[in-house]
Amino acid sequence: MRVPSDAGAGMTTIARAASVTATALLALVAALAVVLAFFGGHLAALAIERGGSALVGRAVKVGPVTVDWGRYTTVTAQELRVADLAWSPAAQMLRIGRSDITFDLWDLLRLQLMPDRVRLRQPVLHLARNQQGQWNLPQAQKDGSPASGKAGHDLLARLAALQAVEVTGGQLSVDSLASPGTEGEVRAFALHMQEENGGTDFRGMASLRGGAPVPFTGRTGSPDALLRSIRTDGTPFPVQVKLGPETARLSADGHLGNPLDLASADLRLRGDGDSLAPLLGAIGLPAEPTPPFHLTAHATGDGQGWNLRDMLARLGSSELRGSASLVRNAQPRPRLSFDLIAPRIALADFEWLVATPGAGGVASSAPQPARMPAAWLRQADASGTLQVQQLEGLPGEPAALRMTANLQDGRLHIEPLRLEIAGGMAEGATTIAADEAGSVQSSLRLEASGLSLAPVLAPLGIEWLTGSFATASLDLRSQGATRPEILAGLGGRANFRVSEGSLDLSGLPHISMDLVETLGFLLGSGGGSGPTPVVCAVADLPIRHGVVQVEQLVVQIPQVVIVGEGTVQLAQSRLNLTLTPNPLQDALLRVLVPVVVSGDLASPGVTRHPELSLQTKAAAQAKACAP
User: Which is it for strands 236-243 and 117-128: parallel, antiparallel or unpaired?
Assistant: First the structure.
């Protein structure tokens, strides 16, 4: 069904509307049968067009009408069409390619017009509503809502006596179901019901918001069971539905109470598959293939929304447990609440979220920058808590995460955000906002302490500096839809203070021997290549347009204070720093020279500075490391 995620508020209206439409159709068939019995096909067609038009309040046209007389008499009508209202974009509200209605001849002679069997071929029903909320249905009240439930009850009472119903090639489309512009569609719909098997089987292809159709199959109770459920207002009506291909199947098994009003529901949900991509594509969110998934949950609901309990979800090696609830008729979009615990989350299992699918949800062969999943942020509003006990994929594992999230009108705000990583703690907040055009604005604010420097820098290939962040802070903001755009637009400030660390020259490649000797004296190691203790390192780094401006960088080692300045280009992972040594002992002044560290961030090259002369500022710079 191209029924959007925010269409739940209109489901009850659609169910009642379907009963009104079906009642009108049944009345047309009954009138057709009577006329056929006495006047023949041509007069029957004329009568059904005039009588039908008067009945539904709009033009009704029908093609050739024939009758096959016998013990069970079948009336066949070709191309039955019911015109739509003037404001609707469709030419017809209803079109049926062929209708075969079978009656018991003895019932016809007694003018008992309830058919035994109904066969509909290629029925196409288009539902829409205007800006005033009025549906394009016959027998609507002045406020545009469907007629009272009596017509639906009368229809179900007649349907309960049917011997068989068969629908093939059906299609339903819905425009502006819960809000302007939202659409839904069911195509290739087929239904088969026989009295002896006690239920109704159906199948078809379903999609939401113009997504890629996926197959669905199911089974419900008989029309008689449906009638009892509606009349008793809650007698369980059994439902079994399977959605998706064999490789990505979502199923629901349970019952509905009073299905026309969705007064109550109790369903067991289960999902299994090789990838979520087919199911996500069906709701208009094409995605790259995902890791295998598994889902179990107990869903209960009413006309207002759904609750998920005992939820267990796995995606790849990641696992999520907890509960959630969805208010379907919240405005302007559905609202989700959740309370979740994740024993384990591997970030690699979610790389598909920012991957760029090609046409039809298949990855394009041409490399494209991964886009932020902006469309996801505007599907619903949400609020809740998430606790991740083991977070994998970040530098400095093991890691754990706690957060409280609020999503409103495409703006996701997470505060507090608490990350335990690299033996320390980082706390702060982050915001990601997506507008209707797909542009994403993001910000991150973190205050950290006690983090070990080595595991944080190791993924960058930096192994020549170790230590611990006594304090560190980030205040960043950016705008863009892809990683290069985000890095290029990054602005803000970072600062840190490192203590109890070391520098190791052996980790810096491409250094000539004379520079090793020079830097060896600089580090007080006499030209050796062993690690040198770092008394402290302090930095204040403004960031403008994706470039870190190294305006204040001070590293103090036992005999020297090193002052750095330059830039780091984040998008290109390149740096260009000038390191000026300031000796704490005058005896070193003659052997220390400034150097330039430049090139790739992971493996920079080091050269003598060609022009800069050394000036002693050690005393002033050492104050930056004072407690």
Answer: unpaired
CB atoms within 10 A of CB 477: 15
The answer to whether the CB of 592 falls within 8 A of the CB of 522 is yes
Mean pLDDT of the 421-438 span: 85
Tokens of 272: 């299994």
Residue 179 tokens, joined? 């809000």
- Pinpoint the alpha helices (H) of 499-579: 513-522
Q: Which residues contact 140 (CB under 8 A, 6 or more apart)?
A: 20, 134, 146, 147
pLDDT at 538 (0 to 100):
86
Does the pLDDT at position 391 exceed 70? yes
CA gap 541, 564 in Å, rounded:
11
The answer to whether 251 touches 241, Cβ cutoff 8 Å, is: yes
DSSP class of 593: -
Nearest alpha carbon to residue 170 among 224, 131, 120, 209: 120
Which residues lie across from 170 on neighbouring strands?
189
Alpha carbons 47 and 33: distance in angstroms, whole number: 11
The pairing of strands 424-434 and 381-392 is unpaired
DSSP-derived 3-state class of residue 106: helix
* Residues 279-323: tens digit of each pLDDT: 988 887 777 899 999 999 999 987 678 899 999 999 999 999 999
Cis peptide before 398 (omega within 30 of 0): yes
Q: Cα(346)–Cα(315) distance, rounded to whole angstroms? A: 9
* Residue 323 and residue 313 in contact, taking contact as beta carbons nearer than 8 Å: no
User: What does the alpha-carbon distance between residue 331 and residue 9 come to, in Å, rounded to a whole number?
Assistant: 10
> Distance between CA atoms of 297 and 490, rounded to whole angstroms?
41
Distance separating alpha carbons of residues 401 and 382, to the nearest angstrom: 19
d(CA 190, CA 194): 14
In order of 392, 411, 458, 495, 526, the CA distances from 446 in angstroms are 20, 19, 20, 11, 40
Tell me the H-state helices in 198-351.
223-231, 277-282
Task: Collect all residues with Cβ–Cβ distance below 8 Å to 314 and sequence separation of at least 6.
Answer: 293, 294, 295, 320
| DSSP letter, residue 528 | -
Retrieve residue 19's tokens: 């009963």
> What are the residue ranges of helices labelled H in 449-502?
453-457, 483-488
Choose among 442, 418, 448: nearest CA to 430: 442
Strand pairing category for 560-569 and 236-243 = unpaired
Q: In whole angstroms, what is the distance from residue 243 CA to residue 203 CA?
A: 10
Q: 263 phi and psi, to 5 degrees?
A: -65, -35
Tell me the C-alpha distance between 28 and 101, whole Å: 11
What's the distance, CA 98 to chain centroid?
A: 40
Write the pLDDT tens digit of every residue in 357-385: 543 344 444 445 556 666 678 778 999 99
In eight-state DSSP terms, residue 30 is: H
DSSP readout, 44-103? Answer: HHHHHHHHHHHHHTS-EE---EEEE-SSEEEEEEEEEEEEPPTTSSSSEEEEEEEEEEEE
